[in-house]
Write a structure and sequence with these properties.
This protein is α+β, with helices and mostly antiparallel strands and 209 residues long. The protein folds into 2 domains: 106 residues, PAS domain (Beta-Lactamase); 44 residues, no CATH class. Helix content is 37%, strand content 22%. The strands form 2 sheets. A 5-stranded antiparallel sheet has the order 2-1-5-4-3. A two-stranded antiparallel ribbon has the order 6-7. Strand 3 and strand 4 form a beta hairpin. The longest helix is centred in the first third of the chain and has 31 residues. The radius of gyration is 31 Å and the shape is elongated. It starts with 8 loop residues before the first helix and ends in a 20-residue tail after the last helix. 12% of the residues are buried.
């Protein structure tokens, strides 16, 4: 005898339909994200598995535009990262597996020049809580890093110049308080360079209001 659909079958059937719809939406979203990542040229996405052997399972095509190295090289040779990363930055590779904490490492391009890549990585665990892989995104921050280093170098050069100049250099705020004085203050005026002064106590600060 054939089973006649009953009223109790309706909710189960509706739930199944909703589950299938959700699964389809998730697959579509995953596919859109995959296409977005694969097509990006200004960052690199990757997944590096740790078990049963260490190997890249995914590397986006951003490696070609940023490093001049095809993604296939990373997939075919898991030691590629060790060859391209700057020797002084290799120890950073296993640090800070927290996407909220970026890690900047230098990578060698195909032309021999180094670029600075800011990595944000996330650990992947299995059902037993064991670390099995690392997923990450690497963004090229070379321009910003070099600009910051140049500013810091300029500040160091200026500081060295000011500290060693024989002339007196002071900085006074709008309230007449000295915020900086070069070491020559004591030699020229007899005031310790580390002391603070005002228009009333320091002739060098007696500037017109």
């Amino acid at each position: 005898m054939e089973h006649e659909p009953s009223a109790s079958d309706a909710p189960a059937s509706a739930n199944d339909e909703r589950l299938r719809a959700v699964e389809q939406d998730l697959r579509a979203a995953d596919e859109r994200f995959r296409l977005l990542v694969e097509g990006a040229r200004d960052f690199i996405s990757y997944r590096f598995r740790l078990v049963p052997d260490q190997r890249f399972e995914h590397v986006s095509d951003g490696t070609m535009s940023i490093l001049g190295v095809p993604a296939e090289r990373f997939l075919d040779d898991p030691d590629t990262w060790n060859e391209l990363i700057h020797p002084d930055d290799r120890e950073k590779a296993g640090h800070e597996l927290d996407p909220a904490t970026p890690v900047v490492m230098r990578w060698r391009r195909a032309d021999g020049e180094y670029v600075y890549l800011e990595h944000r990585r996330m650990p992947v665990y299995d059902a037993h809580g064991d670390l099995i892989a690392v997923e990450g995104l690497a963004h090229d921050v070379t321009e910003a890093t070099l600009a910051r280093e140049e500013i810091e170098a300029s500040e160091r050069r200026l500081s060295s110049l000011v500290q060693n100049v024989s002339d007196l250099i002071i900085v006074v705020n709008p309230d007449g308080e000295m915020t900086y004085a070069s070491p020559s203050l004591e030699r020229i005026l007899g005031y310790p360079a580390a002391s603070s002064c005002t228009r009333r106590t320091c002739p060098a600060c007696a500037l017109p209001s």
